[in-house]
Specification:
The chain has 129 residues and is mainly α. The chain starts with 9 loop residues before the first helix and ends in a 9-residue tail after the last helix. It has helices at residues 10-22, 25-32, 36-50, 66-93, 106-112, 117-120, and strands at residues 55-58, 61-64. Helices cover 58% and strands 6% of the residues.
Length: 129
């Protein structure tokens, strides 16, 4: 990938995406936990970086321009990828630890569970395991 061709701040792209999805700067700012003027500056900066107008102000708030609509799907894809990255990282960062108790009949405990105990928990379950 030619990283020199990426000429915008990814955080600003997130500001654009959330604003488009929420429908207003104030709702987007609440969703992101930031101040509305800060979010507005990020969207403005993205427009300058890209050289396009993404929103038009109307009596009802903001509406996407044709350029904004064209870019929205690309930014949604970026947002979905960022969500998958966060989910994948959090899944790897968390480990389950503790004691596991398995209740089974004597026959199951003696004949069925021993061949599978390493699948259930790869660490030692029984002193001789």
């Amino acid at each position: 990938m030619d990283w020199r061709s990426v000429r915008f701040d990814w955080n600003r792209a997130r500001a654009f995406l959330v604003t488009a999805e929420e429908g207003s700067l104030s709702a987007a700012a609440r969703a992101l936990g930031m101040a509305q003027p800060t979010l507005g500056r990020q969207v403005e900066a993205l427009q300058e970086e890209l050289g396009v107008v993404l929103f038009e102000r109307t009596g009802r708030g903001l509406e996407l321009t044709p350029s904004g609509l064209d870019l929205l799907e690309h930014v949604r894809t970026m947002g979905e990828a960022a969500g998958r990255l966060s989910l994948g990282a959090s899944g790897r960062a968390q480990a389950l630890e503790g004691t596991i108790a398995i209740t089974a009949s004597e026959i199951d405990a003696a004949y069925l569970l021993p061949p599978h105990h390493r699948e259930i928990a790869p660490h030692r379950l029984w002193p001789d395991g």
